[in-house]
Amino acid sequence: MSDGGGLDPQDWAAFRALAHRALDETLDAVHDIRDGVPWKPIPAEVRAAIGDDPLPRAPSDPADVYAAFAAHVAPYAVDNRHPRFFGWVHGAGTPAGIIAGMLAAGMNANVGGRDHAAVEIERRVIRWWCDVFGFPATASGILTTGTSMANLIGLLVARRAAAGAGVRAGGISAEAGLTGYTSTEAHGSVGRAFDVAGLGSAALRAIPVDANLRIDVDALRAAIAADRSAGKQPFIIIATAGSASTGAVDDLVALADCARAERLWFHVDGAFGALAQLAPDLRRLVSGIERADSIAFDLHKWLHVPYDAGAVLVRDGALHAATFADHAPYLARTQRGTAAGEPWFTDFGPELSRGFRALSVWFTMKTYGLDRFGELIAQQCAMARALGERIAATPQLELLAPVTLNIVCFRYAAGLEDAASDVLNGKIVIDLQERGIAVPSTTRINGKLAIRLNVMNHRTTAADLDATLDAVLAAGAGLLDRSSA
Question: How many CA atoms lie within 13 A of 291 on its CB side?
Answer without folding.
Answer: 18
